[in-house]
Design brief:
Layout lengths: L3 H6 L20 E8 L2 E15 L2 E12 L1 H6 L2 E9 L6 E10 L2 E10 L7 E5 L3 E5 L4 E2 L2 H12 L9 E8 L2 E16 L3 E10 L13 E6 L6 E8 L2 E11 L8 E2 L1
Parallel strand pairs: 9-10
Antiparallel strand pairs: 1-2, 1-15, 2-3, 3-4, 4-5, 5-6, 6-7, 7-8, 10-11, 11-12, 12-13, 12-16, 13-14, 14-15
């Protein structure tokens, strides 16, 4: 249970028209999910994107909230909040916030991203670990998936089985490469109807949490939104699923096969 948000964030856990581009997402997008273990509902999550300002400039503000409910909340209370302030022109983060509460474990981490001072690298400033010099174009755990949805998917209309997409992120104050391997086209059942999706398996780290390198799966809608629709995680203590239950403010209507 204590790993609930760590592995579900990767699911959510990437704005409006900028520089003449049609983005796969826009300000006003809000998505709600249900987290369940078999037939037991264990939690809820929401991901919202709004216009905001940061250091006097217009940005996009993404907020992801996940929390336990019902029996799970009594046994092991979790309420985690992740935020990302994103430059709408570059799609890169300018600040990220990790505010987690998992049982007795509490952590509040703010990271500032400087993508301009150095031509060959980015400067990150963490309230917990100080300054870090890292690679150009680095994302946080939220901005990377908006970037994935817009820049990666829109430029790769034809994916081949086995194709791997890598995005370098900064997560839990560490360099954290996210590698997504395309598996197949699939159809996902939701409360609203069936949605055709791209299925990806993240290349996960064996031993710490997952049994093998394909211990998780993500499904993104195969329309112009590339919306995260579903995730499944097979870990040492069992399996759980994250399912889309509602969404609003999408860039284009979600392509749903009505029941």
């Amino acid at each position: 249970m204590k790993k609930f948000l760590l592995i579900s964030t990767g699911f959510f856990t990437l704005m409006f028209n900028v520089l003449g581009q049609n983005f796969s997402y826009k300000a006003g997008e809000k998505v709600n999910y249900l987290v369940h273990y078999g037939l037991i509902n264990g939690g809820i999550a929401s991901l919202e994107l709004q216009k905001d300002s940061f250091a006097g400039k217009e940005v996009l503000h993404s907020v992801f909230i996940a929390q336990t409910t019902g029996i799970a909340d009594v046994l092991y209370k979790v309420k985690d909040i992740y935020e990302s302030y994103i430059n709408p022109e570059t799609q890169l983060p300018v600040e990220s916030i990790r505010n987690v509460s998992e049982g007795r474990y509490k952590r509040y981490n703010v990271v500032l991203f400087d993508h301009k001072t150095r031509a060959d690298s980015a400067i990150l400033s963490s309230n917990l670990t100080g300054k870090h010099i890292t690679v150009q174009g680095i994302h946080d755990i939220l901005s990377c998936f908006y970037y994935f949805r817009n820049s990666i998917m829109t430029n790769n209309p034809v994916l081949k089985k086995g194709d791997v997409i890598t995005i370098i992120t900064w997560f839990t104050d560490e360099l954290y490469p996210i590698r997504l391997k395309f598996v197949e086209m699939d159809e996902v059942k939701t409360k609203a109807g069936k949605i055709k999706c791209y299925k990806f398996n993240p290349v996960t780290e064996v031993g710490r949490l997952f049994k093998d390198e394909e211990g998780a799966s993500f499904w993104f809608s195969a329309d112009k939104n590339y919306l995260p629709v579903k995730a499944r995680f097979d870990i040492f203590v069992g399996s759980f699923t994250v399912d889309l239950i509602s969404c609003e403010g999408l860039s284009t209507p979600l392509d749903i096969k009505v029941k």
